[in-house]
Amino acid sequence: MTTAQVMALTKDLTASVGRVVVGKEAVVHLLLAALLAERHVLIEDVPGTGKTTLVKSLARSLGATFTRLQFTPDLLPTDVTGFYALDPKTGDLRFRPGPLFSQIVLVDEINRASPKTQSSLLEAMEERQVTVDGATHALPRPFLVLATQNPVEYEGTFPLPEAQLDRFGLRLHLGYPTADEESMLLRRFIDADPLAELTPVATVEDVLEATAAVRAVYVDDALRRYVVELAAATRRHPDVVLGASPRCALSLVALGQAVAAMAGRDYVLPDDIKAVAPAAMTHRILLTPAARWRDQTPDAVVTGALRQTSVPTDTRPARSRALG
Question: pTM for the full model?
Answer without folding.
Answer: 0.89
